[in-house]
TrEMBL record:
Residues 104-131 are annotated as: Disordered. It comes from Rotaria magnacalcarata. Coiled coil: none annotated. InterPro entries: J_dom_sf (IPR036869), Tim16 (IPR005341). It is found in: Mitochondrion inner membrane. The keyword Transport applies. This is Mitochondrial import inner membrane translocase subunit Tim16.
Length: 131
């Protein structure tokens, strides 16, 4: 009984330590200005950093802009890790999460561009209406 109680306490302490370490890392990274606040939020939601996602899918920074290569690499790795072909469901899940993380980053990084385009269009309309 005592051994089981000690194991439970140790597991709880490890979980708290991991959560604290991760929160501290995210906070210091965001404060250092290396990555944007939106990227930090996306890391938290997805549970995976962009760097980890790129490593899983074997992609470089340049490959992120090439949607054809991104999809091709994802499909190839997803197919190879299929459980019926001797692969692992865990690996297949990590590949899927990596693709989702990269898609989320692309969506976040493209949204300011769309917002600035809308803002410019609105300003242009206002200019034409005032003249």
């Amino acid at each position: 009984m005592a051994k089981q109680l000690i194991k439970i306490v140790m597991l709880g302490a490890q979980a708290i330590r991991r959560a604290f370490t991760r929160a501290l890392h995210v906070r210091t990274t965001a404060q250092s200005g290396k990555i944007s606040e939106k990227t930090v939020q996306t890391d938290r939601v997805c549970g995976m950093t962009l760097q980890e996602a790129k490593q899983i899918l074997n992609l470089t920074d340049d490959d992120l802009n090439d949607s054809e290569k991104l999809n091709k690499q994802y499909e190839r790795l997803f197919y190879l890790s299929d459980k019926t072909k001797g692969g692992s469901f865990y690996l297949q899940s990590k590949i899927c999460r990596a693709k989702e993380r990269i898609d989320e980053e692309l969506k976040v990084s493209s949204s300011p561009t769309k917002n600035s385009q809308r803002k410019k269009q609105t300003e242009d309309l206002n200019d034409t209406n005032t003249h």
